[in-house]
Amino acid sequence: MKFKEIDAQNQRVEQITTSHLVIGIDMAKEIHVAQAANFRGIVVSKRHLSFSNSIEGFEKLSRWMSELQQKHRLNRLIIGMEPTGHYWFNLANWLSDKDVQVD
Fold it and tell me: What DSSP line would sit under 26-87, residue for residue?
């Protein structure tokens, strides 16, 4: 069982290319926190982004990601989040509706 999990994780990591902006999100009940990195794991934002678990917060995240993609000339996006409780559902569904890949 453990080998299947490792293999799946490696396959996801192999998808990341030099043209990806990688967003990691720490999920919480009311406020989520996102950090941005390039394909090598080097942070590309001056600071993290805190945003609310609401449509307004999701739109704030979307604007932030778009600005970073333009600034660093990264035309692909991958988002990772840990499914903490049920707090991730709203954001994951909103991103999925926007055709954004979430892992």
Answer: E--SSEEEEEEE-TTS-B-SSS-EEEESSHHHHHHHHHHHHHHHHHHT--EEEEEE---TTT
The Cα–Cα gap between 19 and 78 comes to 10
Reply yes or no on whether the pLDDT at 54 is more than 80.
yes
- Is the pLDDT confidence value at 1 over 60? no
pTM of the prediction? 0.85
Half-sphere exposure of 34 (CA within 13 A, CB side): 26
